[in-house]
């Protein structure tokens, strides 16, 4: 298990390339899902300084808040509601450059300006989502999508 992170600055892709092996080391040998999700959220927040990073998991007919880093968050989200509920319903990653322009956006914090939500899928079923918010507009792109999807695959088998 890694004891701390080596944070690098500069090119976003290089940051992910440096971070993913460190996340794998954090997960190595640890079987507790909550611990692993907590460490992933912390590693992403530390590396990128985003406003909010966390997980929601599907329980019954709602997404329920799981491990996260950042200010207090919405606890439960219905399917098709907000960015997280829409990502769950559509089983696809959503990149939202301006959350104010997303129909039905849930404002857990007025400081959130842009968002990316990545579904965690196993055997065709969405088990949960990784939700990342930034306090600036247009912070997420295809590079984030590619690497965040790779990161959620690291835990999809444990879910």
* Radius of gyration using CA atoms only: 15 Å
Please provide the count of β strands.
6
**Sheet with the most strands?**
6 strands, antiparallel
The top level CATH class name: Alpha Beta
Helix amount: 25-40%
Which CATH architecture would you pick? 2-Layer Sandwich
How many domains? The number is 1
Architecture overview:
By secondary structure, the chain is α+β, with helices and mostly antiparallel strands. It has helices at residues 12-27, 33-48, 82-90, 142-156; strands at residues 52-59, 62-69, 76-78, 94-96, 114-122, 125-134. The chain has a six-stranded antiparallel beta sheet, with helices on both faces. Strand 5 and strand 6 form a beta hairpin. Helix 1 packs antiparallel against helix 2 and helix 1 runs parallel beside helix 4.
